[in-house]
Write a structure and sequence with these properties.
Distance between the termini: 37 Å
Mean pLDDT: 92
Largest sheet: 5 strands, mixed
Strand order of the largest sheet: 3-2-14-7-8
CATH architecture: Alpha-Beta Complex
Shape: globular
Number of helices: 2
Radius of gyration: 16 Å
CATH topology: Fumarylacetoacetate hydrolase, domain 2
CATH superfamily: Fumarylacetoacetase-like, C-terminal domain
């Protein structure tokens, strides 16, 4: 595994709904939802995920993530061939999400509705400070993506359920953001977690062919 300085990350782009197991049953989007992750959310393996006392139902999101290589003036409106050539390698991120209600919840009478802000707390985007220099299509098929809370499996899925290839996703993002070296695109997770981080001590995200990412949990006021 090659080392990767998390401080060198330019733009951290997150995708949601790229796995068919994660999308709403009544909607089939043409492309995944996309947002950017604040730098205050990015922490390395071993650093604590800090859960504020006023949030609940916090779940992990194990995700393969692609790191963009040196692309000169940028990767803009790329073809799939150009996207494939722009892959430096793959790392792992944990898309931690507070799904429960808390003050300023946008839809207090509606359950199960959440905004991207629920993913934006400090420390809610742990990322492995290393990467495997794999080819762009290395994880497209039959790659296990899992999460474990205190050793118990709470997410288990495969990239077989991704609706897009990695190069399709990179090319799509490049039509919105001019990608630069060391930008990161987190590719989504299989969803359907069966456990919460609320009372946990640690969480591990594992992506076959890439590695593992483990972080302790702390509760803060």
């Amino acid at each position: 595994m090659e080392q990767f300085d998390l401080d060198s990350i330019g733009t951290f782009i997150a995708l949601g709904g790229s796995f068919s197991t994660h999308r709403r049953q009544d909607a089939e989007p043409e492309w995944p939802i996309m947002w950017t992750v604040p730098h205050q959310g990015i922490i390395p393996e071993g650093e604590a995920i800090e859960i504020p006392s006023y949030v609940e139902d916090v779940v992990p999101g194990p995700e393969p993530a692609v790191i963009i290589d040196d692309v000169g003036d940028g990767l803009w409106q790329a073809t799939e061939e150009e996207a494939a050539a722009a892959v430096k390698g793959f790392t792992i991120s944990n898309d931690v999400t507070a799904k429960g209600k808390f003050p300023a919840y946008p839809y207090p009478e509606q359950e199960g509705s959440l905004g991207r802000g629920y993913k934006s707390f400090p420390t809610f985007s742990p990322t492995l400070a290393g990467y495997e220099p794999l080819e762009a299509d290395a994880i497209d098929n039959d790659t296990m993506v899992e999460a474990f809370i205190d050793g118990e499996t709470v997410v288990s899925g495969s990239t077989d359920t991704m609706d897009f290839t990695v190069v399709e996703l990179i090319a799509h993002v490049s039509k919105i953001i001019n990608l630069q070296e060391n930008d990161v695109i987190s590719l989504g997770d299989p969803s359907q977690p069966t456990g919460y981080l609320d009372d946990a001590e640690e969480v591990t995200c594992k992506v076959e062919k890439i590695g593992e990412l483990t972080n302790p949990i702390e509760h803060v006021d």
